[in-house]
Amino acid sequence: MKNKLVLFVVIALLIGLVSACGSDKKEEKTDTAANSTTTTTTDNSSTDTKASTDANASTDTASTTDASKQIGELKVSFVPSKDPSEIITATDPLKDLLKNQLATEGYTVDKVTIDVGTTYEAVGEAMTSGSTDIGFIPGGTYALYGDGADVILTATRAGLSNDSDNPKDWNDNKPTKPTTDQATYYRALFIAGPTEKGKELAAKVNGGEQLTWDDLNSANWMVMSTSSSAGYIYPTLWLQANFNKSITDLAHVVTSDSYASSFARLAGGQADIIVSYADARRDYEDKWTTDLGRKASIWDETNVIGVTQGIYNDTVSVSKEEKDAKMTPEFKTALQNAFIAIAATDAGKNVIKIYSHEGYKAAQASDYDNERKAQDLIKSLKK
Predict the structure, then answer these.
(1) Beta partners for 248?
(2) Residue 143 DSSP SS3
(3) Which of 49, 103, 146, 298 has the fewest beta carbons under 10 Å from its own?
């Protein structure tokens, strides 16, 4: 009997212990589940908050971007390398071409205006002051106004059948013709006209003789403004290299307002020598015997008597002084893409051929280091 009682007590104790262990495990499992549920809820809340913040940030960014791509007015200025009225007429289609092409780059431009500066310097000063946005200017003008202008494109032109630095070669191989090659540089030419002095100088060159300073100094000259690469800077470098002289040392020199005026003076006998880009005679071939009243061809009545070293092509530059800050790096890239695309179309080619441009490629400031050196030399000669 006693043994049965002991056995009963032992069994009762074991049942109690098992029940206690089961209860502890159940509570532990419940606590763990509760903790897991709380963590998941917190993580979801954090994710929702982050998604909401990102969505707001994205909306704000899109709003800012859209606003920066709204351009009220874009002003484009050209230098007067040809008759201003001709430039205005030829470039008028650029207004719609540029607006439409910039639209493909994501920019909306309400209005494009075009003008021709009274001088090369006037366009450089306009970019410096921010009164114009884009300037079609020579490398020399860009180098002179580099503090206020930023180059974005270099023009490409058709290469020429003549590219010698010997003037006689140009005269032996007239007329100058274009080639299919695209060139990133050109030369400046000293062109003698049909006056007695012009013929005298041409005869010496074509006879293989070297011109003297006295030969040149006795002639009547037409040059362009001091920032013109082909019309002043590189001819000065040529005079410096050959005679240790400059344009300012010439006894009879007049500054022309355009190449059209220079050729008119050459045809009229008021100038014996003009300086121009190579080969500008191609652009005035028809006018020579019509508007300018000459009987014989321009190729028969003019000769090259001097040739400069290569000049890096014209630029498309933009103003650095933008009060409304439209010239962002992104907009400059859009302008580069737009002009390159425009130049690849027939309508675009008709516009840019007024400057003998055939296309554009992206440019950087270092491309025009030689122009800056030339400007430094010009400045030193003026002291």
Answers:
(1) none
(2) helix
(3) 49
pLDDT of residue 338: 98
* Residue positions counted in the chain: 383
Dihedral (Cα; 51, 57, 63, 65), 10-degree rounding: -120
Distance CA 346, CA 32 (A): 76
Strands 185-186 and 253-255: unpaired
- pLDDT, residue 7, reads 42
Q: b vs e for 188-208, b when ≥16 Cβ sit within 10 Å of the residue's Cβ?
A: bbbbbbbbebbeebbebbeee
Distance CA 189, CA 169 (A): 12
The two beta strands, 70-78 and 108-116, are: parallel
**Confidence (pTM):** 0.62
The DSSP output letter for 82 is: S
* pLDDT < 70 positions in the chain: 1-67, 322-324, 381-383
CB 265 within 8 A of CB 279: no
The C-alpha atoms of residue 290 and residue 173 are separated, in whole angstroms, by 24
Task: Look up residue 205 and give its two tokens.
Answer: 């060159």
Please give the angle made by the CA atoms of 273, 276 and 282, to the nearest 5 degrees.
Answer: 105
Long-range contacts, stretch 167-175, CB < 8 angstroms, 24+ apart? 167/205, 167/303, 167/304, 167/305, 167/306, 167/307, 168/205, 168/206, 168/208, 170/279, 170/304, 170/307, 171/202, 171/205, 171/206, 171/303, 171/304, 172/206, 174/299, 175/281, 175/282, 175/285, 175/299
Per-residue model confidence (pLDDT) at position 374: 82
Give the tokens for residue 224.
């362009």
| Whole-angstrom distance, CA of residue 339 vs CA of residue 219 | 42
As a whole number of angstroms, the distance between CA 381 and CA 373 comes to 13
Per-residue pLDDT at 90: 97
Q: What residues contact 342, with CB distance under 8 A and at least 6 apart? A: 94, 97, 98, 101, 348, 351, 352
Q: Which residues contact 317 (CB under 8 A, 6 or more apart)?
A: 127, 134, 135, 137, 142, 149, 150, 151, 152
Q: What is the pLDDT of residues 51-77, one digit of tens each?
A: 444 444 444 444 444 667 999 999 999
